[in-house]
């Protein structure tokens, strides 16, 4: 919105200016900016840009150059008033031609000496003000003396200030201005603006208007009279001239849907023969599109969404707000409907406002009976009529939910909270579902009601069934504030922390300490204790796990403690957990159903991957559904996925991960969503899809804060670092290795991924000794697993590679023999890796066969990178063995798989030998061509290559220049060249 700027011109038409200042700059149209305060007779020109809230869709942008000369009447003649417009098409009122014509006809008849009265009716936002403003402007430009006033929504009575604004016009004769001032002064000094004094003075003012009309036609505009009460409307009747003779036109505007208007409007006014009604309807669909086209332009209007016009329901004001929002955002245009709705609601009577607020507060639970009771009204449809007729409501529903939210936001905070509290009580009494009542309690921040805590916890369960974890969390939070009993409060806090972990694990970490105290005091159930043990382990609080084991052992479900210890032994391989005393015999029913599956999968991963473990993981994944009330269901899913990954069932792992990602997203579990994405990234890495693995791992890290990952952060960081190193992006790997890592993470199974990746980074930057330390740390970490750990990370193979780089092939061979001995037959990827590294530290004669076997193993496991690496080494071994043809073919295969894996350094390595082979082949081709030359031609060509001229060549070879030229001609033909600079460089070697 551009602010108006005042420059040189002439005084604006007085009534236009007065009405403009009174109506368009008031609270109703805060977006309007106008030039005001100029003294009478000053010269001015105003460029006015009036907000859509004032003019609706008509966008009455008064880019008018008002050049007016106003003076006192001379010789009984009215001063000349002229208004010259520019760009009248902007001001054109769409589908209002008949209404404007009716007003023009009424003005002509009144100018002929007959008093006329016109009531312009229309719903909110249909452009009544825009119409009468245009009409008043045209009338004033034709020499009519105009008065106008806008009745504000807070002006329930006809006050002296209202009358003062009505007759404020510097262009009126001095005698009339004096008479008006005298009568208003009498009202101020007398009984005020009511009673017999008011009626008397209004009657006198009506007579003054008729006297004034004898010299100049008079137009009186009173906008929005529906705001006045009944007494004021009856008093206003005395201001309107009753005589049939007189050049006076009175134009009133009112909201047609205000039914009480017809009941309050004086019968004497409605029955007058000179009274006429003009009704403004909403725009047709074509009219709405035309209005939007003029607002946005032809190009933008062609792409206008159909629902934008439908959302406006033909209301000019709403359409203007929608168009402006569409112009600003392109996609956020429904917010314009909300803004227009609130703007219109402020013009409605209090009863309508209360009903709309009740409608917004109740939402989907709104029925006419509930809305009427909450708003304390008799008829909901009657009170909503103003907004229904304006097209702002579709029956008793908002056309877009943004309007309901905007209505509630527009309320004072205390009033809004009170409304929601009353709605909660009403819905509770009506027996509404717990979730509906809880929604009202949350909005009201109400937890003191005696039944609030129990209802909120029930509502949380309903919300979780609908996968609305955020809403369930709000219910549990409010229920926790209502609890006073320590035991009940501990149970609620445990549930709260569990739900917080699903959404924001870092927030859940802040409650661990207080919940450990509750566990030590025996306030937690067995299931809550197991969940707390899981979260404590997630955040690396190993020291706090021991007391929880004792607590689990004291419960009737003490059998769970053995399952928990097995899982902990896999999660923290070097730590020994004591089971503690079990004071009760184990029962057949477990407190945590998913703990048994998680423990079994963990125990399977401690040993070498096998077909039975993979089959168990498949069965678990096919039957598993994520449970909001248990953290162990997600842990079981993650372990099952990792079992498939470590067992080289990579395609199955990716497929199951995709399904679980969808389930976690639908269930509003962003933490598990990030974990499953990290496992998927590891599967892609082992398939040799380095860019895909890197992107997945980095995306997973971005889904939740790094500190919220706990010890599990080692998995996505390790995967991303490994992928970055193999892609040749060492700077990205270095940056990732700087991620904050809990100390306990390096003592967990997830630390294996981080240490293994950091070791390969150190190998890539030329630090084999430091890399060896990382790989051996992996081995040390898995000592408690015995022969296990071979599927998690191939640390022995990597350590052997580091020993080889460090100059100790014997130690490398010992590690590789141990690795191959431990691997089951199904571990194709790990076996192929070990065989490739073993070939590097073996004799030259054994190397091609070992690498060939490695290639045969790797091509069946689906790892493009490892296959490309083995093929590259094989091409080098074949070249060293003298089989150049096979070496070149192998190098080309290696280059193909390296490109598919996205491994740039390996591409360069594989392509290097291929380029050398191409260069050697080109050299041989050149040698074959040079063999066609005679000895003398070779000598001539060699001197030409050195840059000698024909005469210099002839002098050196003791021949004539013409003979040199003949030799060069034959040389060019044999070598298929055209110029000297195209002669091959090998000629100087041949010449020697």
From TrEMBL:
Task: Please cite one Gene Ontology biological process associated with this protein.
Answer: regulation of DNA-templated transcription
Name the domain of life. Answer: Bacteria
Cite the entry's keywords alphabetically.
Answer: DNA-binding, Transcription, Transcription regulation
- Describe the location of the HTH luxR-type domain by residue ranges: 926-990
SMART domains (alphabetical): AAA, HTH_LUXR
The answer to whether keyword DNA-binding applies is yes
Give one GO term, molecular function aspect. DNA binding
Q: Which PROSITE patterns match?
A: HTH_LUXR_1, HTH_LUXR_2
Q: What is the name listed in the Swiss-Prot or TrEMBL entry for this protein?
A: LuxR-family transcriptional regulator
Q: Record the organism.
A: Streptomyces sp. W112
Its lineage reads:
Bacteria, Bacillati, Actinomycetota, Actinomycetes, Kitasatosporales
Q: Which gene encodes it?
A: div8
């Amino acid at each position: 919105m551009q602010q108006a700027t005042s420059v040189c011109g002439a005084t604006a038409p007085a009534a236009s200016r007065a009405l403009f200042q009174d109506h368009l700059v008031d609270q109703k149209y805060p977006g309007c900016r106008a030039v005001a305060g100029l003294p009478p007779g000053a010269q001015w020109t105003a460029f006015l840009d009036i907000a859509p809230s004032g003019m609706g869709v008509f966008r009455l942008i008064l880019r008018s150059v008002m050049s007016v000369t106003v003076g006192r009447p001379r010789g009984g003649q009215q001063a000349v008033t002229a208004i010259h417009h520019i760009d009248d098409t902007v001001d054109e009122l769409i589908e209002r031609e008949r209404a404007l014509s009716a007003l023009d006809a009424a003005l002509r008849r009144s100018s002929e000496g007959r008093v006329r009265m016109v009531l312009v009716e229309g719903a909110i936002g249909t452009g009544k003000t825009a119409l009468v403003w245009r009409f008043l402007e045209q009338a004033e430009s034709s020499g009519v003396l105009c008065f106008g006033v806008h009745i504000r929504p807070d002006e329930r009575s006809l006050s002296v200030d209202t009358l003062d604004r009505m007759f404020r016009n510097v262009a009126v004769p001095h005698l009339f201005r004096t008479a008006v001032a005298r009568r208003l002064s009498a009202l101020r000094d007398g009984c005020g603006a009511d009673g017999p004094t008011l009626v008397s003075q209004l009657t006198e003012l009506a007579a003054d208007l008729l006297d004034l009309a004898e010299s100049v036609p008079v137009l009186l505009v009173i906008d929005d009279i529906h705001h006045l009460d009944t007494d004021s409307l009856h008093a206003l009747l005395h201001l309107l001239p009753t005589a049939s003779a007189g050049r006076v036109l009175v134009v009133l505007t009112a909201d047609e849907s205000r039914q009480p208007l017809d009941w309050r409007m004086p019968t004497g006014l409605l029955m007058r023969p000179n009274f006429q009604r003009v009704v403004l309807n909403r725009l047709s669909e074509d009219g709405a599109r035309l209005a939007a086209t003029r607002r946005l332009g032809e190009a933008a209007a062609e792409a206008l969404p159909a629902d934008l016009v439908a959302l406006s329901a033909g209301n000019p004001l709403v359409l203007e707000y929608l168009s402006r929002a569409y112009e600003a955002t392109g996609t956020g245009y429904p917010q314009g409907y909300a803004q227009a709705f609130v703007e219109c609601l402020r013009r409605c009577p209090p009863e309508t406002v209360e009903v709309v607020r009740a409608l917004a507060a109740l939402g989907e639970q709104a029925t006419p009976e509930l809305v009427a009771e909450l708003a304390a009204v008799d008829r909901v449809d009657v009170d909503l009529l103003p907004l229904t007729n304006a097209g702002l409501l579709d029956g008793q529903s908002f056309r877009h939910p943004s309007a309901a939210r905007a209505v509630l936001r527009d309320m004072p905070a205390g009033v809004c909270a009170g409304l929601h509290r009353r709605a909660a009580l009403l819905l509770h009494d009506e027996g509404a579902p717990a979730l509906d009542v809880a929604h009202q309690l949350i909005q009201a921040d109400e937890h003191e009601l005696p039944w609030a805590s129990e209802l909120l916890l029930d509502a949380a369960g309903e919300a979780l069934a609908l996968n609305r974890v955020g809403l369930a969390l709000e219910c549990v939070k409010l229920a926790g504030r209502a609890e006073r009993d320590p035991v009940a409060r501990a149970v609620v806090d445990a549930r709260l922390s569990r739900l917080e972990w699903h959404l924001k694990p870092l927030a859940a970490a802040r409650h661990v300490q207080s919940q450990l105290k509750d566990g030590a005091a025996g306030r937690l159930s067995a299931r809550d204790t197991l969940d707390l043990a899981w979260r404590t382990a997630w955040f690396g609080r190993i020291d706090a796990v021991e007391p929880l084991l004792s607590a689990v052992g004291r419960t009737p479900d003490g059998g769970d403690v053995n399952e928990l210890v097995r899982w902990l032994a896999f999660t923290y391989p070097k730590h020994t957990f004591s089971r503690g005393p079990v004071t009760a015999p184990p029962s057949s029913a477990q407190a945590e159903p998913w703990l048994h599956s998680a423990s079994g999968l963990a125990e399977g991963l401690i040993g070498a991957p096998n077909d039975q473990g993979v089959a168990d993981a498949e069965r678990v994944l096919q039957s598993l559904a994520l449970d909001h009330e248990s953290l162990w269901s997600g842990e079981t899913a993650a372990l099952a996925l990792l079992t498939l990954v470590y067992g080289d069932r990579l395609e199955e792992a990716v497929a199951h991960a995709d399904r679980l990602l969808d389930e976690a997203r639908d269930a509003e579990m962003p933490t598990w969503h990030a974990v499953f994405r990290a496992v998927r990234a590891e599967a892609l890495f082992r398939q040799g899809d380095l860019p895909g693995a890197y992107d997945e791992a980095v995306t997973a890290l971005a889904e939740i804060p790094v500190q919220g990952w706990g010890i599990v952060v080692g998995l996505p960081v390790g995967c991303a670092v490994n992928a970055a190193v193999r892609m040749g992006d060492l700077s990205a790997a270095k940056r990732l290795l700087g991620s904050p890592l809990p100390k306990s993470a390096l003592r967990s199974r997830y630390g294996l991924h981080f240490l293994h990746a950091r070791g390969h980074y150190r190998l890539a930057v030329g630090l084999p000794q430091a890399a060896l330390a990382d790989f051996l740390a992996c081995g040390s970490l898995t000592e408690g697993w015995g022969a296990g750990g071979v599927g998690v990370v191939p640390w022995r193979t990597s350590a052997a590679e580091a020993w080889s780089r460090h100059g100790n092939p014997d130690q490398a061979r010992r590690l590789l023999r141990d690795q191959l001995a431990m691997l089951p037959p199904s571990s194709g990827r790990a076996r192929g890796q070990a065989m490739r590294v073993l070939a590097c530290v073996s004799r030259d004669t054994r190397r091609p066969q070992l690498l060939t076997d490695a290639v045969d193993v790797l091509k069946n496991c689906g790892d493009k990178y490892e296959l490309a690496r083995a093929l590259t080494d094989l091409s080098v071994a074949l070249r060293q063995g003298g089989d150049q043809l096979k070496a070149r073919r192998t190098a080309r295969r290696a280059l193909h798989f390296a490109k598919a894996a996205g491994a740039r350094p390996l591409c360069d390595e594989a392509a290097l030998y291929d380029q050398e082979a191409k260069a050697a082949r080109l050299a041989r081709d050149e040698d074959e061509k040079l063999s066609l030359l005679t000895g003398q031609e070779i000598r001539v060509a060699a001197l030409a290559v050195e840059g000698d001229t024909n005469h210099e060549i002839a002098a050196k070879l003791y021949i004539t220049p013409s003979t040199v030229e003949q030799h060069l001609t034959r040389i060019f033909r044999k070598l298929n060249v055209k110029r000297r600079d195209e002669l091959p460089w090998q000629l100087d070697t041949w010449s020697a």
